[in-house]
Amino acid sequence: MIKNIAFIGAGNMAGAIIKGLLEQNYPAASIQATTRTTASAERAAAELGIHTSTDNRAAAEWADVIVLAVKPQMLQATCEGLADSINTQLIVSVAAGIDTASIARWLGNEVAVVRSMPNTPSQVGVGASGLYANTRASAADKAFAEQIATATGLCVWVQDEAQMHAITAVSGSGPAYYFLFMEAMIRAGVKLGLTPDTARQLTLQTALGAATLAGQVDVPVDELKRRVMSPGGTTERAISAFEAGNLPQLVEQAMTDCAARSQTLADELAK
Ligand SMILES: NC(=O)C1=CN([C@@H]2O[C@H](COP(=O)(O)OP(=O)(O)OC[C@H]3O[C@@H](n4cnc5c(N)ncnc54)[C@H](O)[C@@H]3O)[C@@H](O)[C@H]2O)C=CC1
Ligand SMILES: O=C(O)[C@@H]1CCC=N1
């Protein structure tokens, strides 16, 4: 189904979703976005090929669906500025932390709100989004939010809004963990004598191969790991070094800190 979608904020995340939608042939004429300054609106229009402006209210009034894609710290002021322009539009918020009750309150209460936690691979059709809907959202609202999410990748619904913090820790922030790991592997490959280009190509293809294999065979990831590790061979040494450095515990700590930050944003900004 085609509806008019206004993105309030046209930064990294909105840009990734818009590119993903356009890639799926969603009509550019049915997407608008706003930014804070005229210069950034012009940049976004040139990059995305859609109508942009700095007029949140005009975009909201044009839209059937409003995607809130500003920083969490900007969300309250942005919603309060939009409140008079909200009638029957569906609100989709991608802001980390902030709960649907706060968003509805800032917009005037009787509002259907779907909270989405997408990630930047949405830009190339392999995003992963977690969705939660408030009780005002109809089946049609949920279906449209799901349409946006599935146009850009995989999506899962949660019934307990508190789980959005964990989703942020797994998939919202997750791409950055893999990029950090790739960065480290490329650097180590170069240190071991490869050219930067060769190290990069092999690292990226290996990440893609591992994720594709894990997704396509019905084998748990620990068993897939074991199948790479010949007893007394090379991989065993690498895995031993990761375990000696407590990599699994470090990952757990990082994700616990990430989820806690999401909760703190909610506590601080959504009073
Ligand atoms: N970057 C990511 O990987 C992800 C980000 N998010 C969420 O997406 C939201 C946006 O994050 P990013 O895109 O990374 O930030 P960003 O800084 O790249 O983009 C923010 C955008 O908001 C615009 N903006 C600021 N104030 C505005 C206002 N009053 N009216 C209209 N536009 C305004 C800016 O001009 C900019 O285009 C955040 O709430 C974040 O929690 C969610 C999932 C993943
Ligand atoms: O780092 C952040 O706060 C946002 C939310 C999830 C990914 N990026």
Describe this structure as you would to a colleague.
By secondary structure, the protein is α/β, with parallel strands linked by helices. Helices cover 56% and strands 13% of the residues. It contains 12 helices and 8 strands. The protein has helices at residues 12-23, 38-48, 56-62, 72-82, 100-107, 139-151, 163-172, 174-191, 196-216, 221-228, 234-244, 247-269; strands spanning 5-8, 31-34, 51-53, 65-68, 90-93, 113-117, 127-133, 153-157. The chain is elongated and about 70 Å long. The model has no long low-confidence stretch (mean pLDDT 96). The structure holds 1,4-dihydronicotinamide adenine dinucleotide and (2S)-3,4-dihydro-2H-pyrrole-2-carboxylic acid. Residues 96, 168, 172-173 line the site of (2S)-3,4-dihydro-2H-pyrrole-2-carboxylic acid.
Main β-sheet description? 8 strands, mixed
CATH class category name of the largest domain: Alpha Beta
CATH superfamily of the largest domain: NAD(P)-binding Rossmann-like Domain
CATH architecture of the largest domain: 3-Layer(aba) Sandwich
The helix content is 55-70%
Could you tell me the radius of gyration in angstroms?
A: 21 Å
Strand order of the largest sheet: 3-2-1-4-5-6-7-8
Give the ligands present: 1,4-dihydronicotinamide adenine dinucleotide, (2S)-3,4-dihydro-2H-pyrrole-2-carboxylic acid
The count of helical stretches stands at 12
User: Count of DSSP E strands?
Assistant: 8
Strand content: 5-15%
